[in-house]
């Protein structure tokens, strides 16, 4: 049995144990998903572990990796297991409120900030168009998705700088920014300090206060 699954589901509380109405992914069901077969819409729903979203078989969203798919008898079971309804195919019948959708997107960013993220890849994963995603996200969060990604990365970098001895290059990579000079520029723009200055300042503060975990905002 090969196990090449590397990605971690964003919702660690989702328990994939048997006996929760989770069905087997048969070849027939997999074909229905691949072919967006509407005839199967009343027969099952499928959830994707890596995105935390569930869909109707007919959904035109990006095809998931087969090993990340879970099958449910009905929408309620998927919700109980911690999955959220897809914005595009609306597996619960009603439209997904924009707030819910934006929450899905922020969850995804927070769990995947260390990977390559673009507006297009977010739109694919969260089942919407880049244009709609940009507008809706900005309206609700008051920042663009890209700004939110940057903010998340800098917040994580601040933690790494305070709590680890890793180099600036390693920390930049750990927050998904492989261009160290761009990372330094962005960090300074957001915090007013370079990463090295921040680390130095934090160390000095620890010396005076003796507080090792002074991460208060
Ligand atoms: Zn869908």
TrEMBL record:
Transmembrane segments: none annotated. The keyword Oxidoreductase does not apply. Pfam families: Ada_Zn_binding, HTH_18. One of its GO terms (biological process) is methylation. GO terms for molecular function: DNA-binding transcription factor activity; methyltransferase activity; sequence-specific DNA binding; zinc ion binding. The keyword Transcription applies. Keywords: Activator, DNA-binding, Methyltransferase, Transcription, Transcription regulation, Transferase. It comes from the Bacteria. Its cofactor is Zn(2+). InterPro entries: Ada-like_dom_sf, Ada_DNA_repair_Zn-bd, Homeodomain-like_sf, HTH_AraC, Me-P-triester_DNA_alkyl-Trfase, Tscrpt_reg_AraC-type_HTH. Gene3D superfamilies: DNA Methylphosphotriester Repair Domain, Homeodomain-like. Residues 103-201 form the HTH araC/xylS-type domain. PROSITE patterns: HTH_ARAC_FAMILY_2 (PS01124). PANTHER family: ARAC-FAMILY TRANSCRIPTIONAL REGULATOR (PTHR43280), HTH-TYPE TRANSCRIPTIONAL ACTIVATOR RHAS (PTHR43280:SF28). This is AraC family transcriptional regulator. It comes from Peribacillus glennii.
């Amino acid at each position: 049995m090969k196990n090449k699954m590397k990605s971690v589901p964003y919702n660690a509380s989702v328990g994939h144990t048997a006996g929760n109405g989770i069905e087997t992914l048969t070849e027939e069901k997999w074909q229905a998903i691949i072919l967006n077969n509407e005839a199967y819409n009343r027969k099952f729903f499928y959830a994707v572990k890596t995105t935390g979203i569930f869909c109707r078989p007919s959904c035109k969203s990006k095809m998931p990796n087969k090993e990340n798919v879970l099958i449910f008898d009905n929408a309620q079971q998927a919700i109980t297991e911690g999955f959220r309804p897809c914005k595009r195919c609306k597996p619960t019948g009603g439209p997904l409120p924009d707030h819910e959708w934006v929450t899905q997107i922020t969850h995804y960013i927070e769990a995947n900030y260390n990977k390559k993220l673009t507006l297009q890849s977010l739109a694919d994963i969260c089942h919407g168009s880049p244009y709609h995603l940009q507008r809706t996200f900005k309206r609700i969060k008051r920042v663009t998705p890209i700004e939110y990604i940057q903010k998340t990365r800098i917040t994580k970098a601040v933690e790494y700088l305070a709590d680890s001895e890793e180099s600036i290059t390693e920390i930049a990579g750990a927050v998904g920014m492989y261009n160290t000079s761009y990372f330094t520029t962005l960090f300074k723009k957001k915090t007013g300090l370079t990463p090295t200055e921040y680390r130095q300042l934090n160390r000095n503060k620890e010396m005076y206060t003796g507080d090792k975990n002074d991460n208060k905002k």
